[in-house]
Amino acid sequence: MSLQNFLSALDALQSEAIATLDAASDPEAFEAARVKYVGQKKGALKDIQKQMGGVAADDRKSAGMRLNEVKQAIEKAVAEAQSRLSGGGDSGVDPTFDPTLPGVRPTIGHIHPITQTITHLTEIMGRMGFEAAEGPEVEDPHHNFVALNIPEDHPARDPLDNFYLATAATGTEKQNIEGTRLLRSQTSTVQIRVMANRKPPVRVISLGRVYRPDDPDATHFPMFHQMEGLLVDTHVTMANLKTVLRVFATNYLGGDVEIRFRPSFFPFTEPSVEVDFLWDGNWIEFGGAGMVDPNVFRAVGYDPEEVSGFAFGLGVERLCMRRHGIKDIRDLYSGDMRFLSQF
Length: 343
Ligand code: PHE
Known about the structure:
Layout: H1 3-23, H2 27-38, H3 44-51, H4 60-85, H5 113-127, E1 131-132, E2 138-139, H6 141-144, E3 163-164, E4 182-183, H7 189-197, E5 202-211, E6 223-233, H8 238-253, E7 259-266, E8 269-279, E9 282-292, H9 294-299, E10 308-315, H10 316-324, H11 329-332, H12 337-340
Parallel strand pairs: 1-5
Antiparallel strand pairs: 2-4, 3-4, 5-6, 6-10, 7-8, 8-9, 9-10
C-alpha cells in the first residue's frame, strides 16, 4: 500500500470514528462504536495498524507517526464520549474526576464508649422487662433527698458534697427553701419521679449523668453515670434482686459472674447492700442496692403494706472500664479521639 493511500485511509478512519463517537447518544451506541474503532481484537485501529506492514519500509516512520496521532485522537473521543454518557460532560461533573481512585475517607463521628455502654445496658435490662425512664439532671431537694428519706441533717446534703446551683439561697440552712436546685448526685431521683406518676407494678431502669464535687483521679470524676433499677410489685424479695443483678452482670461482663452482697446503709433502702461482682478472681464493688424503704413508698403515695420492691444503682463507667480494660476514668472524658475511637 502506498503511503498516500495509507494516510488517506487513516484520515477517513479518524473523521468517521470521531463523528460516530461524538454522535453516540446512549451507552449502547457508545459501546458499539468503541468496539468498532478501538476494540482489541477486531477494532478498525488494530486493522489499519496491520496494514502498515504493506507500506514501503522507508515510509513506515511517517506512517507510524500519523497512526499514533489518529490513535490518540480517537482515544480522546472515546474518553470524552464515555464521560459525557456517564454523567460527566453536560451535567457539570469534572471530566477529570476518576471514580476508580480510592476515596478520601471523611472524618465521621464516633459513638462515645459510655453512650455505647448505655445502649448495651438498656438492651440487656430491656430483655428482663425493664423499661428506660429519664429524669432531669438539674433537680430539686425533694427528688434528690426528701422523698428518698434523706433527712435535712444528713451529710449527703452537705454543700461540699453537691453542686448546688447559684440561686438566691445556697447556704447550708437554706437548702430546702423553694427554688433551690442542684445537679443530681444520684439517679435515685428517677425512682421518685417514676413512682409519683404511675401505679405499681413498676419495672424501670434509668441511665444518666450524676454530679459530685470529687477531685478527678483514676477512679473519680465530678460527672459520671449511673444505672438505676427499680422494681415494685407484690412479694418482691432480695432473692429477686440478686437474680436480676446476676443475670445482668453475666450478660454484660460475660461468663457466669458471681455476686456478693455486703450489708450497708442507704436512707432509701432497708435492708441495704453494697453489690460486688467477682471479676478476674477479685471482688469489685459496682454499686449499691436494697429493698425500697417504706418511707419512700409513703412519699410517693404507695402503700408499703401492699407493695414491696428493690432498687439498685450501679456505676456505668466502672462497668464500661471493667469490660474494656480501661484503667483511668479521665481517659473517657479527655476528648482524645486516638483513645476514644478504639472502642
Ligand atoms: N443512689 C445510691 C448511690 O448513688 C445507689 C443506690 C441506688 C443504692 C438504689 C440503693 C438503691 O450510691
